[in-house]
Amino acid sequence: MTHLFIFGLGYTASRVKAVVEKAGWTVNATGSDGDIDFADGDGVRAALDAATHVLSSVPPDRESGLDPALNTYGRDFGRAWYGYLSSTGVYGDTRGAWVDESSPVGTGRRTARAECDALWLRLGARVFRLPGIYGPGRNALDKVRDGSAHRIDHPGQVFSRVHVDDIVSGVMAALTGPAPPGAYNLGDDLPASHNAVTEEACRLLGVAPPPLLTLDEAGLSPMARSFYAENRRVANGKARRVLNWRPRHPTYREGLRSLL
């Protein structure tokens, strides 16, 4: 029987769980909605021993920078398929240039993530590098509706993004196909500014876009503000070639329309 163990049943991993369960897999997971407490060593080790596939969505620890799953249970990993949900933040700032899986990593603000990314690669995992994630309950339409949408006067700034369902389809392609270990960028085909996405959401909802603000005027949190310190475009060609993956939402326009 095919058995998936998930470290960290969050926004994206919970959707992976739903799809693999529908396909008849057995799934155990840690996290607030999981069935095993991360601190339950015996329970986690028993599940790892039974697992044919292991997927982690747990980010680095904020204080130590260590990977909680590998640091706590790495010695208990057996001969399973491994996957890790990482971040395209590992590429750092490229001043808007394109990056692919051969590009240098570890130079940006997410050095701890880059180190954990490298550890999973050395383990032989399929590492999915993800840009900004959006989907049901987490998208520009919701922000426009609740009044929290903003536009920042920051010319030339672009981001890549990906619909959560396209992450799931990419992970499933790797789970069920002959994908070799390595890094895979899962992002859409059209990197764009935050402003362009907000403006499209406003157009779809038939409302005027919010005013342009400076970074200081916007009153962004340190985390939100830090996104504007990096500028890059993320290429998805390897996932297309090796996983035979095609995003159902190739740009933010299709993605937003699907969420109306």
TrEMBL record:
Keywords annotated in UniProt: NAD
Gene3D superfamilies noted in UniProt: NAD(P)-binding Rossmann-like Domain
Cited InterPro entries: NAD(P)-bd_dom_sf
Name of protein: SDR family NAD(P)-dependent oxidoreductase
